[in-house]
Recover the amino acids of this structure.
């Protein structure tokens, strides 16, 4: 009788410890991403065929060995995009100590009007290190699809606007999607998360 | 005598800061500075209708820009952003509308000159009745 009780208690003890351990492991593993939604993806983000405003070579090494924060937008967007770029500027400034290990990327959804020269002027106004990407409409659409987003022209004559996703995407140093952030985010939240992930992964 | 001067001074400051006109009160209006080569921007602020009847914005323009429209930014559950024009914005008596980032905003298109912090943008608002409103909106850096 006593032995049976002992076995039950022992079993309970093992069960509770195991689940606590499992719970802790999960939570120790995830706190790096606190302000965004963690994503697990095995797909490598393919940037080949896109062009950067600085004429960087865009092979798949572009996303390697760095944490990348990426968003979609267009330069004649008056409301959402300038807010996003001001956020990129602020987070980049907060991350200045780690500037070699992060990069912030703005992908235009309006290649018709956003030339490389225009991207340079626009992004440079916010922060010299923000990288602008462009490409053919078809290539950009395929690229957006990797993030589960799309964009479309909202016809309004010559002053048309573009519907697009507002999310920020975090890509890990292997070029895989790691997390998604939904703005507006209070200043510093992205910098905090990015500092944590940088510190956790030794490159 | 001194007190009267103080009171008058105070009242002057109040009216200057709140922009009182035709039963309307405008607060915290600003327009975003434009990055180089960009001819589009947005203005934000709060418009309070203090009159006893509804006010409907029928026209909005600026001598400094080709087009001004009231737009509403909408984000769907997938995070897709869409902007829709609001053609007749109605402000019920005693109520206010707030133009703010990520929501209702005054969209300025086709600026003739870039807007730099410290400058002003004139915006003329016509209502379906009553006096029109001329706003001098300060330009602010993001």
């Amino acid at each position: 009788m006593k032995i049976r009780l002992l076995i039950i208690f022992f079993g309970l003890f093992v069960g509770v410890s195991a689940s606590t351990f499992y719970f802790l492991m999960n939570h120790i593993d995830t706190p790096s991403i606190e302000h965004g939604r963690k994503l697990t993806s095995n797909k490598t983000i393919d940037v080949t065929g896109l062009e950067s405003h600085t004429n960087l070579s865009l092979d798949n090494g572009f996303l390697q060995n760095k944490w990348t924060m990426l968003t979609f937008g267009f330069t004649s967007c008056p409301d959402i995009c300038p807010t996003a770029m001001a956020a990129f500027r602020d987070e980049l400034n907060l991350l200045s100590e780690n500037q070699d290990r992060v990069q912030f990327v703005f992908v235009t959804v309006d290649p018709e009007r956003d030339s490389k020269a225009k991207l340079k002027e626009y992004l440079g106004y916010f922060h010299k290190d923000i990288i602008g990407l462009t490409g053919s409409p078809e290539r950009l659409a395929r690229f957006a699809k990797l993030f589960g987003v799309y964009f479309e022209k909202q016809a309004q004559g010559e002053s048309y606007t573009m519907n697009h996703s507002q999310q920020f995407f975090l890509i890990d140093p292997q070029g895989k999607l790691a997390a998604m952030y939904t703005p507006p985010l209070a200043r510093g939240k992205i910098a905090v998360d990015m500092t944590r992930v940088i510190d956790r992964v030794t490159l | 005598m001194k007190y009267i001067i103080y009171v008058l001074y105070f009242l002057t400051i109040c009216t200057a800061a709140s922009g009182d006109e035709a039963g309307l009160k405008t607060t915290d209006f600003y327009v975003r500075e434009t990055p180089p080569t960009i001819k589009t921007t947005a203005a934000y602020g709060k418009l309070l209708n203090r009159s006893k009847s509804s006010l409907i914005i029928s026209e909005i323009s600026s001598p400094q820009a080709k087009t001004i429209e009231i737009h509403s930014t909408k984000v769907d559950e997938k995070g897709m952003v869409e902007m829709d024009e609001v053609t007749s914005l109605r402000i019920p008596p005693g109520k206010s509308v707030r133009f703010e980032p990520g929501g209702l905003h005054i969209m300025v298109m086709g600026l003739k000159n870039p807007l730099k912090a410290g400058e002003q943008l004139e915006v003329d608002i016509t209502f379906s009745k009553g006096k029109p409103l001329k706003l001098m909106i300060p330009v602010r850096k993001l």
Notes: Residues 2-29 of chain A form the longest helix (28 residues).
